[in-house]
Automatic annotation (TrEMBL):
InterPro entries, alphabetized: Dimeric_a/b-barrel, DUF1330
DUF1330 domain sequence ranges: 2-95
Name of the protein in question: DUF1330 domain-containing protein
The species this protein was found in: Yinghuangia aomiensis
Family matches, as SUPFAM superfamilies: Dimeric alpha+beta barrel
Superkingdom as given in the UniProt entry: Bacteria
Pfam families: DUF1330
Length: 115
């Protein structure tokens, strides 16, 4: 099942360390099957607020996403980003190709009816 790394990055002032991080990042992802899905592309807010820039990486599985995050190659370059950019980063499982939301809806309906 695919997995994703989603970053909502804020306060990214230009800095040479950030450029180096971006240049080196693809080589850290490659051994784990990682690839860019979204990288600092403009986004359109439809509801609420969503400040900052979005970066989304895809991996074949959550295990590979975790292995990339914990890898010596990534840990070596992570400070180049974290010392200059604030924001949150999550790792999250995707859903199977045949996923349908009916089970989630049923669980919500059951919880709502139990009150």
């Amino acid at each position: 099942m695919p997995a994703y790394v989603i970053a909502n990055l804020q306060d990214a002032a230009p800095h040479a360390d950030i450029a180096e991080y971006i240049e080196r990042l693809p080589d850290t992802m490659r051994p784990f099957g990682g690839r860019y899905l979204v990288h600092f592309t403009p986004h359109e807010v439809k509801e609420g607020t969503w400040a900052g820039n979005i970066v989304m990486l895809g991996f074949p599985s959550i295990e590979e996403a975790r292995a990339w995050w914990d890898s010596p190659a990534y840990r070596e370059i992570a400070p180049l980003r974290s010392q200059h950019i604030t924001g949150g980063i999550i790792l999250i499982d995707g859903v199977a190709d045949d996923y349908t939301p009916t089970a989630a809806a049923a669980a919500i309906r059951h919880a709502a009816n139990s009150d």
